Amino acid sequence: RRASYAPFRMRLGIRSIRALSSSVVTPSHSPPPPPMAAGARPPPERQWKVPGAPDTDEWAASFSRATVDLAKMDVHSISYQESAERLRTLLKTGLLRHTDLTAHPERFFLAHRLLARHAPQLGPGFWVRFTVHYNLCAGTVLGLGSAEQVAMLDDWQERGLLGCFSLTEKLAGVSSGLVVNTQAHYDAHTDSFTLNSPDRGAFKNWISQGLVADRTVVVADLFVAGKSHGPHAFVMALRDAGEPAAGVLLEDMGRKTVGNDLDNAAIGFDHVVLPRSALLNRFADVVDGEYVQKVKGMPAFQMIGQRLFTGRVAVAQAALEFRRGLFESTKAYADTKRCWAPSGKPVLSDIPQLKAIFAENERKLAPLDAFVARCEAQLNDTLRADALPELSLVEAIAVAKVKAVEESIEITHRLQNEVGSYALMVGSGFEQKDFLTMCKFAEGDSRVLMQKMARDRLRLFEKKQASTDSAAWDAETKQCAALSADLAAMVTKSGADRQQAWDEKWEDVYALAETIMRNKMESFMTETMRNE
Q1: What whole-number distance in Å separates Cα of residue 286 and Cα of residue 293?
Q2: N vs C: which end of the chain shows fewer Cβ within 10 Å?
Q3: What is the per-residue pLDDT across 385-442, written as a single tens digit (0 to 9) for each?
Q4: For residue 98, how far is the Cα from the chain centroid?
Q5: DSSP element (H, E) containing 302
Q6: Which residues in 379-396 are b (16+ Cβ under 10 Å) and which e?
Q7: Residues 97/157, Cβ–Cβ less than 8 Å
Q8: Where are the alpha helices (DSSP H) in 385-505?
Q9: Closest Cα partner for 304 from 237, 222, 373, 247?
């Protein structure tokens, strides 16, 4: 069963894999960082402009006004229930409709960017809560549901009902691919499904918003007449009158380093009976007791993965916004922090290494901003057309996610270690830096995506390029040739299998992925600009 959808797991990038201090003396105790109202200083106009997108200035102003109170949240003391109520209130404003993901996708992404500007003060909690509801839960209903199922999203909005997305499991996490052990068995006599976790390993795990959500989309292996049809999505009420629905088992995942205003749950299902209408049935259904695939060549589990693409763009943009905000506030502090010197009155930002890192950040942000914006613009067109993204766009989105996140992690870490004791202060934003760690493994871990890039490229080389004239090879192809030869030699000489050899050459694998990403950014920008 799993082998049948392994190629799609490969395409999504969710297959499993084995495998200087300051030269100027400053006071030992720096003053606390200046108070910052998140969102009070609007980001530069260029950040909100996506090629080909409708004007969103008026909508952005309305959304910012509706979320201004987020800056007042004390994430160190607020409960996850209070945080959830804030999202319910925002949801009921109707500013961002569930259907905007396809009708006005530029608003969907802009909302994520605006909320990410609060992240240096608030951490990841509210941002994750928001994207889980709008992208993963409601977005899956929108993408996989029938017209009647999509229509119920309006009721969710009016009533402020929150949703979560029950995919990952204790023994099938974010690196395992689209593999689920939760089962949904169809009963022809009652025309219903029985949803069950056969063991604790099948409990849904790390489900954000799982302790407070009213609704959930559950991904389970669908069985009809005893035959497995792979992962399918079901929408169900997770709570009834404020209490867990019958047969639903909820467990708190415990405290985290950041984001404790967000609840994360383990969820088990003990023979929960669902009506047939719970199956999101735009692409597959059970009719007269038989499984029916409605769209030829379009298995339902393929469409489940579509939310990864919108999620990866949103995560890439969030990482860039967190980084931008952290650098802005740190530079504002460094520009006013006086330092002792034998002569003159220098400020902290005059220190050479700090001046250099501020300039480096600006230099590196510009091309990444442009690249991610291009990815969004292309994906927006696909969403409006209700179409699947082309392979070139899927690859570009994966690159955008990895580069935006990994570069942000690296450069903010260096900033933290250059700016001095300011980085230790609560309110500086550095205490929320694990926001970027969340970005790293959300919607496809960076390492998993890079492994996939290298594997796919090496397969292409070995299938179509290995026998061609090496004099015409570019640097990327030469890297493929060298890695391919090394792998073959290791298998021949030591008797290692291909996977063992691959693991031994992990540094070369990631070096190849870096080359692929660099080239993809350049070619994608050139191609999309030519097509304008």
Answers
A1: 9
A2: C
A3: 999 999 999 999 999 999 999 999 999 999 999 999 999 999 999 999 999 999 998 9
A4: 18
A5: helix 300-304
A6: bbebbeeeeebeeebbbb
A7: yes
A8: 391-418, 434-441, 446-460, 475-494, 498-504
A9: 222
Per-residue tokens: 240: 């009834």
Compute CA 77 distance to the chain's CA centroid, rounded to the nearest angstrom. 26
Confidence band for 39, pLDDT divided at 50, 70 and 90: very low
The long-range contacts involving 217-220, CB below 8 angstroms and separated by at least 24 positions, are: 217/136, 217/137, 217/140, 217/141, 217/163, 217/164, 217/165, 217/166, 217/280, 218/166, 218/182, 218/184, 218/269, 219/166, 219/167, 219/178, 219/180, 219/182, 219/304, 220/180, 220/182, 220/183, 220/184, 220/195
| Token pair for 159 | 């009533």
Q: What is the mean pLDDT of the chain?
A: 89
What is the model's pLDDT at position 18? 29
- Segment 185-197 shows an average pLDDT of 98
Across-strand partners of 286? 291
Model pLDDT, residue 291: 96
The contacts of residue 390 (CB under 8 Å, 6+ apart) are 382
The pLDDT score that the predictor gives to residue 68 is: 82
Instruction: Give pLDDT, residue 172.
Output: 79
Q: What is the b/e burial string over 347-369, where b = at least 16 CB atoms within 10 angstroms of the residue's CB?
A: ebbbbeebeebbeebeebbeebb
Instruction: Give residue 178's pLDDT.
Output: 67
**8 Å CB contact between 512 and 458:** yes
Contact status, residue 209 vs residue 223, Cβ threshold 8 Å: no
